[in-house]
Amino acid sequence: MASLKLTFLVLSGVILFSGLRCLYQGMIINKLETKWLTIGVVIRLAGMFAVAAYLNLSHHANSSAAGAMIFLTGMGIECIISVWRGNSIVRENDSETETPLRQKEISTFYFPLVFYLSFQTIIIPVIYAFLGKIQDVHLGIASFALAFSITNLILSFFMYTHQIVLQFYEKNKQTVLKCVMVFSIVPSIFLAILSFTALGPWFMRTVLSADMALAAESLHVLKFFILKTMVFPWVDYFGGILMLQKSTKSLLKPQIFNMIAVVLVIIPLVYWNPALNGKAGAIAASTGELIGLLAVYFVVTRRQKITKVAEQKTV
Known about the structure:
This protein is mainly alpha-helical and 315 residues long.
């Protein structure tokens, strides 16, 4: 119990460091100095490895508090680097004129974004809840979790489409569109290679050390995530446009449609065909992502039409 309390106490420090880091990383990204994010992560990993090695050698690595301390060290290192570089950027650009900004403007942008991300977070636990009704619960949930982790790992290299939109869309829309096309095709190709070639079983058994049954089932699940990797960059692209227009509240409706689609798809799958196992979760997640894309596309195009009509009336 004491170890658990200490762990939560340490993790509260992680939250503080994470908030500061995100604040200053926003400044760094805005000035296109993203190399400092990479530098921060590299130094963070080195620091975490050093602390882990020390705790292991001193025989203090046998509690949850030790893991939290390693995490806190890494977040603290990354926070220090972000704060240092962010403050340097502020000093270098202190001659720039600031436009008046009210607290209400920040709130109307930020809080809808928080709810949008919350809905994104809830979707996967909802899928796990329904996967409890499948034929082979343990294998199904494990295969879905492994396939979902691999999908997110591949997508992690292409998850910042909205930042590209925020930084470059108004300067060169066509180049941004070409970039999004690449972000949509490349991860889908990677996932297809793992799903349909001999590299997949080798990767599962050798790199991830999965047993044959879990490896085979996870690869079947992975095939249904290809649609998600194709769709996600475009969802992020249109989301970036809404962020650029400071209309983050418009992100909520597509995300709600995404969640509704996931539930409506997974219910008949797990009850009528429980033998699908983890594949039911992947089908539902990919379908929800597709519905979310159609919804956000409709929202963006509708806003653009309203803006054009307003401009024509003004002229």
